[in-house]
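> tool_call: predict_assembly(chains=three)
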Amino acid sequence: MTPDRKLRVLVAKPGLDGHDRGARVIAYGLRDAGFEVIYTGLRQSPEQIAREAIQEDVDAVGLSILSGAHMSLTGRVLDLLREQGAEDIPVLVGGLIPDQDREALCELGVAGVFTAGTPISEVADFIQSHAGA
Amino acid sequence: MRGTLAREPRALARLVSGVENRTPGWEDAMKALYPHTGKARILGITGPPGGGKSSLTNRLTAGLVDRGHRVGVIAIDPSSPFSGGALLGDRLRMRDVSTAPGVFIRSMATRGSLGGLCQGARDVARALDAAGYDLVLIETVGVGQDEVEIVKAADVVAVVCVPGQGDGVQALKAGIMEIADVYVVNKADRDGADQVAADIGAMLALSGEDTTDREMVFPTNSLSGEGVEPLTEALLDRAARVEHAPERVSERAREEVLLLVEREIARRVRAGLAEDPRLESAVEGVVTRRSDPYSAAEALLGLFGRMEVVTGE
Amino acid sequence: MARSTDELRRAEQRWRDEVVEPRVERFKIPASPVRFYTPDSVEDFDFLEKVGFPGQYPFTAGNHPFEAWRAHAEAGARLGAGGEYGMSSSGRYSGYGTAEDYRDYLLKIQALGSRSGPNVAFDLVTQCGYDSDSPNVVGEVGRVGVAVDSIRDFRTIYEPFTGDLAIDKVASNFTINAPCCVILAMLAVVAEERGAALDRIRGTPQNDILKEFIARGTQIFPPRPSMRLFRDTLVFCRSHFPAMNVNSIGGYHIREAGATRAQDLAFSMANGIAYLQEGVDAGLDVDDFAARFTFNSFGGSMQVYHEIAFQRAARRMWARILKERFSATNPRAMIIRQPITAHIGCTSTTLQRPLNNVARSVVGGMAAAMCGGMPSAYPPFDEPLGLGHSRESLQLSIDATRIMIYEAGMSDVADPWAGSYFMESLTDEIEAEAQEEIGRIEDMGGAVAAIENAYMPRSVARSAYERQRRIEQLEDFVVGVNCFNGERELDLSLERTADEFYDPEHLRTAEERQLVKLAELKRERSERSVSGALGALEIQAKDPDANVMPALIECVKSEATVQEMCDVMRGVFGEAEPIKL
């Protein structure tokens, strides 16, 4: 690792859900923790997210979903990353995720699930430890 | 490297990271890439915050793709001086082209390195060039020295202004206006757009620059797309002229080589002195006021005569 | 003769020196952790100017001497003794799956005694102006609300409403903003089909597009054309739906998105001013149309005193805006009509030890009772679990409300804090802070300009981050989250055992069934009449002085879809730009 190395994270809101409080807070928080955060705003399609993750060569992708559509949207992002040979990029999911779906998300290949009340430092540490830096 | 030349997005993205992070071996990669570069024209887009630069970049890119170009976009935002992190949000305005084939968008933070932005952006542009992107748009926020630097990497620079920014034009005069090849008055549907265009015209007249042979000011509306077409024409036209301006080309090459030397020396000085007890004792001398910063620097500079610090031996 | 201010100040100073300071020193803390207020805190307090009587300008003490629900509260309890009263909250926000699923749900709660009109949650696909077969909506159909693609779906929703619950006898609520004009057109068409006179139709569409840009994110068109569509709905409502409310102005959502109290108040007022101005510019009489504005449950924090002061300040500010700025004379046009007043907001509930949310919601209900609202213990405790409200949580919520009303007598006094040195001073403080923020927005050119330059959405995001920072730094405390969260605390749980109103199986298959219906629609309808109606809509949309509503009604009748209508308008108006952080 060189001194210039910065961890890069894509924070995205897939689907139509417009509640972006969590995504914005995480974006600010990771920036202040020294990350370079690529924030892409609302209504991102899984295709856009996968492409952005690859072009930006991020160390992690954070998806924020509160609409209940987390299973299908996350699954699609993971599939697309896999198809493009980028399954090594860890995908984190935050938002309103019922307990019973946590495990299912992890089985799909999600690296971590973070719900309301998680301190940003915990997310930052998680990304750091998964980035292989 | 090979992946980049084969136009594999992931390989290109990783190469860009390596170049940006100065990962060991990056220079070798750039050396190997250089023969494959030189085909791309580089367009700089800058101006004060809130001018709609990202939306304009989105529009320009869409138009260029329609003309059959492969377009690379480097969107630069400032790093936080406190945490070193950055919030890179430009590509959120580039949705029309974010999944278009033949477009590669990369967000870049300034990282506050000394004159490094220009070199970093130039290297990234070169990587895009090698990967077959024949036009590279570099978008920066025109508020600081870093952004003015960008002109050194671009073949043509557009400065974007909008009406309703108060003393915007006044502020521009002080800095980035001098670097413009063309001026864009974006959000031209708003009140005051004509005034901004007139102000720029007056400023150009005062500067004494001869602009009679070409249009300098372009009104656009990046939301509706109005005015983007003539601007695209003008940018491509100016960029093509650079090829026929050997002085500008050699001036830029000279600047680049000098800058690389400067940066490497600066890096070696810092690396070499980092652990050197002589630096510590010089610092202590300044702090306890036994010595002064000027004498301390002079004494350390003496070491370079023997090149022991510079060569790191 | 009252004692002089000087005398009071001297006494206060003596008290500080002789009583407070020794105690502060004894406990070795930098300052007293509590404050005390005196008449000096509300200098030149003029009761009639600042407070007035409940139901009179400036309405600080309340919209009415007593609220409508309070009039027969005791009679209601006697009726409820041993009777079937369990579904009295059935007017609540609902909607899921296909229109058929939602219809069946409505029938089910009617069988349980519901007498309310539909309070419709639309799915995000409809809210964002897409159809269920749009490629970018996979997984969202019928998810957070009911899927409505065309008049056929809308018609189905109203099937259960017949007889004494007919469409013109119940009040409908629609959580719809960007495509509000489309939904109102559907309502007009269904009412007409049912033979109901439009002037008998009651209801409230949310129709608050500005706060979508700030907080909720379902905007479709840029801010200025969005305001033109608001104007069209406003003018149409006043001329065709005189008994309908026009909108339900944010507040609630802005706070949930992270705004401070002052930002919430200022932004909501600034948005309200923008809507009022649209009506005035359209030549409508403010005394008439402003009386048809409503607000969406201002508030949303655990700071009980502040939330009470906030409601009082909000009522006074809105009344003054109407009277002083818009020269309104009709008192009904000056009041903040909202379903509940203070509450804690969903963001105050915690996923950790969720039963604690019952205690939290009661605090919010008490605040509501003390500022002129029904003491609703809102939201139900399982709100943050993301599973929908269980019947257990609804029962607890409504019983808590009943206990506050009937046992605690919380709703027996109007504005119980009126004249309190502390509360009047806090009310002034909140009003002044919001007023300053409104001034800033006015300087930018008003609410629309403060959205275009991203000022309002960014301010809200920064405040949300500041709140998170305060929680993580232990400057703000949340029980069970950042304090008292050790291993030895007991996590209580409550099993979901009662029958659900929703069938989760329906939710799983909704998208598939909706797509079949939509394909059927597209097969059966006349493409010619659809494209004719859409063409007429385009012409009307392009003319800034025209009203799109009549053209939309024709589109609805031709069985054009929500997305087809919105796409025509996207073509004319463009799309809203994403907001940068």
